[in-house]
Amino acid sequence: MTIHPPRGFRTLTGTALSLSARLLLGGAAPGGMILTGALITGALWQGATPAEASPHKTVAPSAAPASGTASATARGAASGTKSAAHGRPRAHRSRPGKSHARPEAIQVRGSRAQRFLTTAATVNVLSGRELRALNIVSPKDIAAYTPGLTAVNATSGSTPIFSIRGIGLDDYTGNNMGGIGIYQDGVFAPYPVFYTGQMFDTQSVAVEKGPQGFEYGRSSTGGNIAIETIKPDGKFGGYVDWGYSSYGTNTARAALNVPVTDRIQDRVSFSYINGDGWQRDIHTGRRYGSQDQLGLRNLTRFLIDDRSSLLLNIHYTRDKGISMSPQDTNGDAVNGFPTGTIGVGPDAAYNAVNVGNNRVGRNENGGGVSLRYTRDFDWGQFVSTTAFDAFRRDDYDNYDGESVNVGDYHWNDTSLAQSHDMHLQMDLTRRFHLKIGVYESWDKINGAYTSYRSFLLDVPNGNLTDRFVQQNVSTGLYLHTVTRVLENLDFIASGRFSWDDRGFNGGTIDDAGALTTKGAYLSRLNTSHAYVRLTGRVGLRYTIVPGTQVYATISNGYKAGAYFAAPVSAPQALDYVRPENMIAYEIGAKTSLLRNHVQIEGALFDYEYHNRQTLFVAEMPMNITSLSLGPIPRARTRGGELSSTLHDLVPDLDLRGSFAYLDAQNTSPVDSIGGLPLLSSVTAHSVLPFAPRFSWNAVARYGIDLPRAYRMTLQTSYTWKDNMLLALGDPNGITDKISALGMRMEIGPKTGKWTAAVYVDNMLNKHGNTYSFTGSDNSRVQFLQTPRWVGCDLRYNF
Q1: Of 173 and 558, more confident
Q2: Is 9-87+98-797 assigned to CATH 2.40.170.20?
Q3: Which residue pairs from 784-788 have beta carbons closer than 8 angstroms and sit at least 24 positions apart in sequence?
Q4: What is this structure's pTM?
Q5: In what residue span(s) does the TonB-dependent receptor plug domain sit (predicted)?
């Protein structure tokens, strides 16, 4: 069944786009000034990074949203021309006698590094070089090295849950947008499947914290994760990367950059991972957790003239791995069986699972296209990005961790998403920076989520299936200003108008007649909800000395409502969860000293929530325990973060570390959701989910010059996260303290022509519980962290 947008939506959207186009394109600003670009040299640990191609190229990445007068825009950056204000680029400075690999000079429009260093908010950046050195291959993996960010897989398949400072959406079904906005090259991903398998050939990943949506994209309460890929440039080159690691895992990545003509540049890249699983069934010996993932991407830049360009992005992803399985530690005891009958028991080996004959696996594929138009003016820049994506998922998930059907899942859905963002940024005077834009999106998911419960319901083929169509429409008008009120003092004011319409038509069907008539609906919902919100941010930023600033901001965030699409036997568990609202207070300081050799960033924050969306464990009819989505009327999170980078302060040594503290509590008790009693009542001041009290990480890299113009780099890394709650009202929903030690040794010529590396992740072979919950038969189910992983990789640049 198709859900149509409410009457008048097309008129509203067309009017908004027409009005925005007039605002954005109407007339040059008086007193316009030429904004200068940023020239970044060297392979820094933070900020914009050298492209992952040949070490001799000049790259002009696409523009990122700017903040403040420090986020300047270079004329002609797309065509590789020099900034008029900067003149000739300065050469990279190196110590006498050091013959390091020649770094790339990256000429950036609206430099992301400069923006993140000057924006009045906390932003943590991982460069492409760091991502590769830390073996980060998915957005979920960056949480280990980002303070305040958590990410776990809630199912055996591909549904990661993100949370920033305790804000997210802990829903495992995959049909809801979280409180965190995920962007790939400026394109918003409404569902988790849209950022599956595309994090390769990456330039940087930035985590922007606090309410967002004032400078680009969609409104979010917790923050954004922005992934930027390497863009094509005007020189031929590329790389080939191959690796082999534990459990027969082969990894191949490559990129080829080709200047087709003086006006057309193309970059094609791919990633392929294939390996055996690290888990074994205790009875059949079959492996689980294997990988078979392919990603393809082609970027083509069309240089229309020296001021404007088009960037075409075409991408595809396919995943046919065998899903990882959780462990059920006491299912046998709960059901009166000997240990190992249907579960693995409380003292099972870390890699032991009991899947039996349950069919488990992934069959996912999808792709899309986006087109970005950029136009530079003497007084600013206009950017318009349009995208369309489609994804198909057909996954079988041993969600209960048992060899019988207590709560296994079949995720069968098709997702579509279309979005358009356009904005104009300009300096009207030397004291006033303005950014204005419009964002609109439409997404739809058509799904059939089946829960296999024949063992629990004592009926052959006792399945419950939620068949549904969900459709979302979102429009936003945003405005961001920075005004220089005194010599070193800036006033920041931002605002956003958001209109969201969310519709859901479907419900849970009793496939075999276990609870009611065969094929009848146990619960059904056919409704839509539209909301209008005004959000904003005000703040002050004071520059103590160049490179050192303090700031204070007050902002409010908004996230649209949500529907819970898992098969449930009670209609109340399927009900709509109203939008989430938040007020955020933050003070912070940033400093960049000794010519960027020392960078320190710290912040204190206080968040107040209203109607926080989260998972609860509720009691359903027929004594079935099930997770369900519901609201927390009032909640509060306070905390602080500190991160620092020391680059070459001691010759050849790079250090990076961060620390985060969170005190996240619900301030109102919850005994039930929609009339359903919770498995365990939630008292006032109990801890919120996905908010570890403490977390920290550290990375050290040391370079050693070798004879015959070779160089060796040694790296060690360590991450630690406190235990955290995963669902309210669930006594089993708490993780272990998770830690991992990693080592890496890399060698190659100083020219950077090739490198060879060996590494070990989780060197101490920790097996902590990363996600656990109470299953439908009241047993305990848990996922464990990936064990020790040893590997090597070879890379050749050309």
Answers
A1: 558
A2: yes
A3: 784/327, 784/350, 785/738, 785/740, 786/278, 786/761, 786/762, 787/278, 787/350, 787/351, 787/762, 788/246, 788/760, 788/761, 788/762, 788/763, 788/764
A4: 0.84
A5: 118-223
